[in-house]
């Protein structure tokens, strides 16, 4: 079963990380990447730019309208995700707990099943 | 026959696993990689040579060639740590092997190879990937396509599975432990088969059909273990399930449930083959879980529609199946309740559903069944609410579409 592990980041939390915590976060993601690739559960990952770089294209009756800024103003933003192929939800949760973000108060990941995927080469 | 591709694809896929099994028996299952490469080399040689000089005994030719190729590779591969240990192996006669009585039959080879690939030490996903690659003869790209994951993901699973086999040791399975190693093989094939129905629903056609592969492997298993009623059961179950496929998928990948299927669209040949198989094995058999499920599919297959179905028999079979599986599988109970509704009416069945859902609140399809029973009982508002819950709960796009249709129909849309 495919699961998306969505990393929700609070930019203010990220700004206040110590040097050591940043190092831990970087190393932890590196280790997570290596481990899920090794186990054959890794499909893909993306990290996203800061929400200030977002544009929104909004549907309207005549011409779609383009505006600056994220879709929703909020404290936490989608920072990136891992797409995994695992045996079941229990395994997805087990892996989610190995993501370094969940050791830092104020950060969280969301684990959500995928119902359709087309990855081009799969 | 100058076109080398004119050699029947089915023949390659038949010969390759048997050749691999023979090499693994000789050189040890910890040499999986090298043996596989040697078989590939030999297949290429065959492609080049058979068009002009077809061999008298293709299997013997391939085995002898693959052995030579294995030796070439070991000799080339001077960095192999355990090369020394295999030098003695290299003294083994490489020429055509006499077909003596202690030569295991080809089907036997296939069975051992299946058992090796379904080694209990491997994770399920590794068992399935290795089986599809080594026994069914699919490429990594085809397996990746069937599962809709990148090729690298599958390649890694196969690599890791082979590594774990090496670590687990134990060599090539011996004929003595047929039954004890059969259970994981059956489970792997069943997972493969059900996955096919899950991944193909509402998705575009794939070039590798997991259901067809699972059936192919089950046939092979049936030839290798004709005594096993569970093997016969799993094959019959697959055939009878696959037979419904043309009637199960409507326009735009829409899912059509059993009670609405036009049964004239069922694949008659598959139905007949499945029923014939059941008639062969059921008398006097102590049925295991797969044979029981096949018998249930058989009862459906013998009926022309829902009304004329022998629900009494289906309910009885599900009750036995519940006992056989120790009541650990709530989906079986759910299916028994569907049969109960046909026999004892919707109210009794709805009460049983309530009981089941308090024990298994996350059970998939429970709300879909509940919605259906409520609708039949004329409790439209409650049915609508249950359909909405069922739509939220399902992870299957085609199933979701089907439930939305039902909900629309309910509200007169």
UniProtKB/TrEMBL annotation, chain A:
Reading the lineage from the top rank, the first entry is Bacteria
Kindly give the PANTHER family that the UniProt entry links to this protein.
BLL7171 PROTEIN (PTHR35174:SF3), BLL7171 PROTEIN-RELATED (PTHR35174)
Query: What SUPFAM superfamilies does this protein's entry cite?
Result: Dimeric alpha+beta barrel
Q: Which organism is it from?
A: Solicola gregarius
Q: Which residues form the signal peptide?
A: none
Q: InterPro entries attached here?
A: Dimeric_a/b-barrel, YCII
This protein is called YciI family protein
Q: Which part of the chain is the YCII-related domain?
A: 1-113
Q: Name one Pfam family in it.
A: YCII
**Family membership noted in the UniProt record:** Belongs to the YciI family.
TrEMBL record, chain B:
Residue ranges of domain RNA polymerase sigma factor 70 region 4 type in the record? 117-165
In terms of Pfam families, this protein maps to: DUF6596 (PF20239), Sigma70_r2 (PF04542), Sigma70_r4_2 (PF08281)
Annotated RNA polymerase sigma-70 region domain ranges read 19-79
Q: Does the keyword Transcription regulation apply?
A: yes
Q: Which InterPro entries match?
A: DUF6596, RNA_pol_sigma-70_dom, RNA_pol_sigma70_r2, RNA_pol_sigma70_r4_t2, RNA_pol_sigma_r2, RNA_pol_sigma_r3/r4-like, TPR-like_helical_dom_sf, WH-like_DNA-bd_sf
Domain annotation DUF6596: ranges: 181-280
The UniProt keywords, alphabetically, are: Sigma factor, Transcription, Transcription regulation
What is the protein named? Sigma-70 family RNA polymerase sigma factor
What species is given as this protein's source?
Solicola gregarius
């Amino acid at each position: 079963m495919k699961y998306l592990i969505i990393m929700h980041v609070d930019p203010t939390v990220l700004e206040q990380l110590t040097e050591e915590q940043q190092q831990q976060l970087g190393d932890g993601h590196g280790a997570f990447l290596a481990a899920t690739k090794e186990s054959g559960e890794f499909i893909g990952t993306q990290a996203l730019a800061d929400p200030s770089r977002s544009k929104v294209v909004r549907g309207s009756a005549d011409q779609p309208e383009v505006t600056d800024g994220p879709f929703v103003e909020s404290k936490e933003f989608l920072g990136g995700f891992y797409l995994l192929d695992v045996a079941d939800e229990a395994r997805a949760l087990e892996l989610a707990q190995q993501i370094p973000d969940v050791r830092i108060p104020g950060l969280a990941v969301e684990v959500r099943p995928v119902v359709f995927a087309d990855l081009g080469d799969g | 026959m100058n076109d080398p591709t004119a050699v029947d694809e089915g023949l390659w896929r038949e010969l390759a696993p048997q050749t691999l099994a023979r090499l693994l028996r000789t050189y040890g299952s910890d040499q999986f990689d090298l043996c596989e490469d040697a078989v590939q080399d030999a297949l290429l040689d065959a492609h080049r040579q058979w068009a002009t000089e077809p061999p008298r005994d293709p299997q013997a030719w391939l085995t002898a060639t693959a052995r030579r190729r294995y030796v070439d590779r070991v000799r080339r591969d001077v960095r192999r740590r355990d090369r020394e240990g295999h030098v003695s192996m290299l003294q083994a006669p490489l020429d055509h092997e006499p077909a003596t009585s202690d030569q295991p039959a080809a089907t036997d080879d296939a069975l051992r190879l299946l058992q090796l690939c379904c080694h209990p030490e491997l994770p399920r996903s590794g068992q399935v990937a290795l089986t599809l690659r080594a026994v069914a003869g699919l490429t990594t790209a085809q397996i990746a396509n069937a599962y809709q994951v990148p090729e690298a993901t599958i390649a890694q699973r196969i690599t890791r599975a082979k590594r774990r086999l090496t670590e687990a040791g134990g060599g090539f399975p011996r004929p003595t432990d047929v039954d004890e190693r059969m259970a994981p093989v059956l489970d792997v094939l069943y997972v493969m088969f059900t996955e096919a129905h899950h991944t193909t629903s509402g998705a575009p056609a794939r070039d590798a059909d997991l259901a067809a592969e699972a059936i192919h492997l089950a046939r092979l298993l049936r030839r290798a273990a004709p005594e096993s009623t569970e093997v016969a059961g799993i094959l019959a179950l697959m055939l009878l399930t696959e037979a419904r496929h043309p009637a199960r998928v409507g326009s735009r990948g829409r899912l059509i449930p059993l009670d609405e299927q036009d049964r004239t669209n069922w694949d008659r040949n598959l139905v007949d083959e499945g029923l014939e198989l059941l008639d062969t094995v059921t008398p006097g058999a102590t049925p295991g879980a797969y044979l029981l499920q096949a018998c249930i599919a058989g009862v459906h297959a013998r009926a022309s529609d829902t009304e004329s179905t022998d629900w009494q028999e289906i309910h009885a079979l599900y009750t036995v199946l519940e006992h056989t599986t120790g009541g650990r599988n709530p989906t079986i109970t759910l299916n028994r309740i569907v049969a109960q509704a046909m026999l004892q009416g919707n109210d009794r069945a709805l009460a049983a559903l309530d009981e089941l859902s308090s024990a298994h609140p996350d059970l998939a399809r429970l709300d879909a069944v509940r919605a259906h029973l409520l609708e039949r009982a004329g409790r439209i508002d409650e049915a609508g609410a249950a359909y909405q819950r069922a739509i939220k709960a399902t992870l299957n796009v085609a199933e979701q579409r089907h439930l939305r249709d039902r909900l629309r129909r309910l509200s007169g849309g």
